[in-house]
Design goal:
206 residues; alpha/beta; 5-stranded mixed beta barrel; 3-stranded parallel β-sheet; elongated
Length: 206
């Protein structure tokens, strides 16, 4: 059998895009699960998430079958009410970037608290990205107080989006970011975090 190791980029209906290093060249294969269930310790609503490292068996030139899961160093998840089980969002992270706004949509401090708690549990660096900081509501005293309280937790930096800027794609590690204010715009976020060839458009806001 011809086996490879790769990183899950995404997937649906138990078919996953897996990026493999094949003779020094990055190649994405469309992979299904060879067995119906992967051997994992915890029951999850979904078996894999972006960032998971897996072992696959080649299936032709473009496809593969996932045969095993490499143990995760960490994970990010949320509770899936319908499935009554944790739902994996990402795995094997180095940093977490939380995007919020003062308004449009409304500021959600409980969301930040929940994600910060999970990041602290997994010992991850966090940067808070505040978009639409030029809105009048961003200067609201209550918003400033609540954002300040959150930022004083285990946060590597707070980035405020106020004006169009050019942001280098080589974003520094969160551990290297000072706890100061930077200018950033949404288009720059897309260029930094979206892989080349991927559609960067936001389809919905929740």
């Amino acid at each position: 059998m011809d086996y490879l190791f790769g990183i899950v980029l995404g997937g649906s209906n138990n078919v996953f895009d897996v990026e493999c290093d094949e003779n020094g060249t990055k190649k994405v294969r469309s992979c299904s699960l060879k067995s119906k269930r992967l051997k994992v310790e915890t029951r999850y609503y979904n078996p894999l998430a972006p960032g998971n490292r897996v072992e696959i068996e080649r299936d032709g030139e473009e496809k593969g079958q996932i045969v095993s899961l490499v143990p995760r160093k960490n994970e990010f998840s949320r509770w899936n009410v319908k499935g009554r089980a944790p739902q994996l969002l990402a795995a094997n992270l180095d940093n977490v970037f939380l995007v919020t706004t003062p308004d449009e949509p409304p500021f959600r401090p409980k969301f930040l608290d929940r994600e910060l708690a999970q990041a602290e549990r997994e010992n991850l660096n966090v940067v808070i990205l505040v978009n639409k900081y030029d809105l009048p509501s961003a200067q609201n005293a209550d918003f400033q107080k609540r954002l300040g309280a959150i930022s004083r937790r285990r946060v590597a930096g707070t980035v405020l989006s106020r004006a169009p800027t050019i942001f280098d794609r080589r974003i520094p590690l969160a551990s290297d970011l000072p706890g100061h204010v930077f200018d950033l715009q949404r288009a720059a976020l897309h260029s930094v975090f979206c892989r080349e060839g991927r559609d960067p458009r936001a389809r919905s806001v929740s």
